[in-house]
């Protein structure tokens, strides 16, 4: 397993976040001590305890709203660290929702969540809306979704369909595509005060930031609604809203109350 990189990669620090409102659970993996790159994590796992076939143990399959022909299975052919990953065969069609999620209850993590995941995929993000990660917001009972639209990364708030950034040419230009054919380190921070930060391969994505000061084409639409999220879980997979097949792999997933960071190559 690669070692944790301490380099800041020249990026600006994330917005200052308040301390979690409740104690963080102790770091855990599916078995044994935390692997490298898990410092400060409440949950950290690289799927190493999984066996071929369906996920089990520390993970379970979750279908948001409905399910179709998409699948999630343990893979040993394509991995980031170690010998296992989870492969998601995501299918187009409004009801093709398939995710994997930790079986550990993460709701006690607190009001500030940091996440890190490695994702590799085969097909460029489509023009239509898709998602590869989702977090349940316990305040409105809906999902905060990370995925793509107009061929670039975006956040989508299910409760009102707000997007980050705005899906205008100027807004999309402030986001980034999710490179295909390589492992990408995706990090995020969701703060219960209504702040949000996102990094791709160690670098902050300008259009995927909510900093408390509404900016046209970026978070002005997002901030028009009072938003104080309380996220309670993390799901990884594929959610299509019409078109967009993709094959994705996930590995080295961690969440915690402070930034965990990417692993060095």
Set down the secondary structure blueprint.
Layout: E1 41-45, E2 59-62, E3 71-75, E4 85-90, E5 97-102, E6 112-121, E7 130-137, E8 142-149, E9 152-157, E10 162-164, H1 169-172, E11 184-191, E12 195-200, E13 203-204, E14 235-240, E15 246-256
Antiparallel strand pairs: 1-15, 2-5, 3-4, 4-15, 5-14, 6-11, 6-15, 7-8, 7-14, 8-9, 9-10, 11-12, 12-13
Structure description:
- With 265 residues, the chain is mainly beta.
- It has a single domain, classed as Jelly Rolls (Sandwich).
- Helices cover 2% and strands 35% of the residues.
- The strands form two sheets. Strands 1, 3, 4, 6, 11, 12, 13 and 15 form an eight-stranded antiparallel sheet that branches. A seven-stranded antiparallel sheet has the order 2-5-14-7-8-9-10, with no helix packed on it.
- A hairpin with a 2-residue loop joins strand 8 and strand 9.
- The longest helix has 4 residues.
- It is globular and about 45 Å long.
- The N terminus is likely disordered.
Provide the CATH architecture.
Answer: Sandwich
What low-confidence regions span 5 or more consecutive residues with pLDDT below 50? 1-34
Run of helices and strands: EEEEEEEEEEHEEEEE
Sheet with the most strands, sense and barrel status:
8 strands, antiparallel
Rg estimate, integer Å: 17 Å
Strand pairing plus helix content: what structural class? mainly beta
